[in-house]
Amino acid sequence: MVKKKLMTLLTAVTALFLMAVGGASASADKPNYVISTDATYAPFDFQNKNNQYVGIDLDILKEIAKREGFTYTLKPMDFSSAAQMVANGQADGIIAGMAITDERKNGPVYDVSDPYYQTGVAWITKKGSKIKSLDDLRGKTVALKTGTAAANYGQSLQAKYGFKIKTFKDTDTMYSDVENGNSAATFEDMPVIQYAIKNGRQLEIKNPNNLGNAGGCGFFVQKGKNAALLAAFNKGLKEIKADGTYQKIVDKYLNSKQEDFVGSRADNNSVWGILKTNKQAFWDGMVETLYLTVLAIVLASLWGLLLGVMGISQKLWIRGLSTTIIYIFRGLPLMVLAFFIYIGLPGAIGTKIPATTAGLLTLILNEGAYTGAFVRGGFEAVDAGQMEAARSLGLSRGQSLRKVVIPQGLKIMVPSFVNQFIITLKDTSILSAIGLLELTQTGTLIVARNSQGFRVWAIIAVIYLIIITLLTWLSNWLKKRLR
Asked: What is the reported pLDDT for 420?
């Protein structure tokens, strides 16, 4: 594992903007495809108590792949990003309870399989709500999950019933918003909300016998691409429906006890139980967070030092280049930069970018720009007389910088470096948006499985606080040592 991650680092350092092709390599006789999914959409796609990605979608895909002789690399992330990955060729296909709408089926972006599941949209309020009909939503706020067919259906009713809309990127947060009374209602696929209610969500389905936007879910690929994959999916789907395997998969997730997937109710109703049940997931998430943080700190510090030295160059164009780079990457929101590198850039250059490489590049460019700014300031804070004294002793400008100015400047910058380390640690949480399984994404997956948002996020917060406290102690220790 360490060797693999060191190879990732080597790739990022030696070729900053040259991206390796993501995913596992295909064997000689089995093609390998990159498949994106929304891992927070139970019972279609989610992570079980053993941290395995399961669900109606993923079990169907697994069975079809086995029968049709192909392999795949799964890329779990939020739904909008997963769909965009297929649209720009970063992924070969998406299976995520994605509804087959006329816009998707006949549009210029996707080709779609035969329907593999028939569903419809329910509208939901918190349990015991006085809202009885859609007319009661007039003037109130409705929560919708971005990019879903349920959201499109909700939006189609907005003008008629006069409600306001609030959007969310993940299902759990959307449900919590309704439960807490911040939103009056939401729209969701029927099996998804049924699963959530069985799992303890305090929500109520208002139209169980009159579902809206009834239709099928499909497997999508990029328009005009991966025809072989689409044909294999359709062929395999017919086979598993014919021999009863399909129905066994559906029954497994719709009729089984929730404890089979999320653990016992007792374990999920206490902080200790959640820690015990998910200790490996929390540990892996923390390790991934620290891995990203340490590598980003080292590389961003080197990049920032270079930008800082460029910022005090005697040559105007070098100083201007440094200022421009710092201005651009400090000005871009971190999530926008992550999406641009991981989702936008591959469509322009025609090369897939591994999520880890994209995440590291995002942190290096962003954190390095901030580091470059305070490094330049630290050098400029050294009294100008130090340079003059060094030059009067016969040292060249370069020697004066290396032996006199930079050592003094670095001493001034140490607290800023440690503070930037803390910021980098916290910024890794944003990379969950591109599917990196760090601490925040780990929490999202656990909550999607057990619906225990308060307890899980409290645990995540404590873990972050412990790590940040240790870094703060390090900062204070270094300040005292360097006085």
From this structure: 86
